[in-house]
Amino acid sequence: MYSQHFGLTQDPFSIAPDPRYLFMSERHREALAHLLYGVAGSSGTGSGSGGGFVLLTGDIGTGKTTICRCFLEQIPAGCHVAYIFNPKLTVTELLQSICEEFHIAVASPSPQPTTVKAYIDALNAFLLESHANGQSCVLIIDEAQNLQADVLEQLRLLTNLETNQRKLLQIILIGQPELRDMLAGAGLEQLAQRVIARYHLGPLTAPETAAYLAHRLAVAGHNAAVPFDAAALRRIHQRSGGVPRRINLLADRALLGAYVEGRALVDRRIVDRAAAEVFDTRRAPTAAGRWRWAGVAAAGVAAGGSAVLLALFALGVWPGVRTGGEPGAAALAVTGGLTATVAQASGAASAAAASTAVMTAPASPASTPAAARAAAAAAIGAQGAAALPATPPAATDVPVLDLSQGLAMFPTNETTAWRSLAGLWGLDAAALGDADPCRAVRSHQLR
């Protein structure tokens, strides 16, 4: 849909494992080299040890299957390949699939079903004939983490098909990280000892993510500057975790969003909107989510604490406040009595922490003064909690929060405020130094 808008001839971020789009990062080059090493050894044309297992693992979406497709395109002449992409099979079904992939005819003693021995005998004869003709045989099993233990044991036995000089079958297992755990488990020690090469494919770094996006756009026909600004590139890496498939999903939706808005450049805002549309947001709050309330506190210091407090009440954002109506009793008790007491007893910085705890409490009519008091006590520690009233005053006895009370909730100066805020962000206060805080926090990927 957006191809013409960005000068593209095809879809640059399809999740299909197209080898043309394979971005050869250092990790991907090493992974491909491990696969080629196994083939070289089995064919007798290289320095590989021949036979046994080659293991390639990686998290979901890191590009394992794409590397496998690229590997298949580089298979040398005289190498027979059997590729199993659905390994949820029994021993008999797996042997049948291997023979079908190698185009081996297996005599069936009809009407009885073909036995395991019949498949193995036919496979052994094929492997011996291929070896005599100077040919090699490679078996590739994708999604190998789905293999059952008895099937893995049968695969190990297949590596016993050999001559005096060489194993006749090279087996490549490609799967998710749990495949490594399976092979390390009890009962598979013999198979694990036959792994001649193994590699785990990790996610891309931030610079690799930017290069990955540029590479795929170039393959798709884009010959101008990358249509993502620097902030958007950083955000894509952060949101995707450097996983290529997630990068594809996010970049594709971000380009669509820019096209809908008639923009030629994707910015961070568009990336965030795209991430909300393509990724599951039902997870626990991330650091980005926690920044929102911290940002409210910072804005209160810069613009005047009372303005923030009055705005929270006016908009009905404060917990316990009913939008368009009177404040609830819990809200009045907490803001009028609890916070003011903390401000006097524990100092301005502790009061700011208490007010943050109150602001992040669940906004529900069921909120109680006791629950709010517990939240505030957790934020300000034992010293501040000791000064809290055991029983908050009744709503009718609590005055409306005035300007002086609002200001008392915040640190007394901007430097103290920023250092308190650093703690909420999980930073050492010394990390801010004496530089402008807005610039200092950017080095920690905060804003």
Explain what the structure shows.
The protein is α/β, with parallel strands linked by helices and 447 residues long. 51% of the residues lie in helices and 7% in strands. It is built from 19 helices and five strands. The chain has helices at 26-43, 64-73, 91-101, 116-132, 149-158, 178-184, 189-192, 206-219, 230-240, 244-260, 268-278, 287-303, 305-315, 329-346, 348-359, 369-386, 403-408, 414-424, 437-442; strands at residues 53-58, 79-84, 136-141, 170-175, 195-201. Strands 2-3-4-1-5 form a five-stranded parallel sheet, with helices on both faces. The radius of gyration is 32 Å and the shape is elongated.
List the helices and strands and how they pair.
Layout: H1 26-43, E1 53-58, H2 64-73, E2 79-84, H3 91-101, H4 116-132, E3 136-141, H5 149-158, E4 170-175, H6 178-184, H7 189-192, E5 195-201, H8 206-219, H9 230-240, H10 244-260, H11 268-278, H12 287-303, H13 305-315, H14 329-346, H15 348-359, H16 369-386, H17 403-408, H18 414-424, H19 437-442
Parallel strand pairs: 1-4, 1-5, 2-3, 3-4
Helix pairs in contact: 1-2, 3-4, 9-10, 9-11, 10-11, 12-13, 12-18, 14-15, 14-16, 15-16
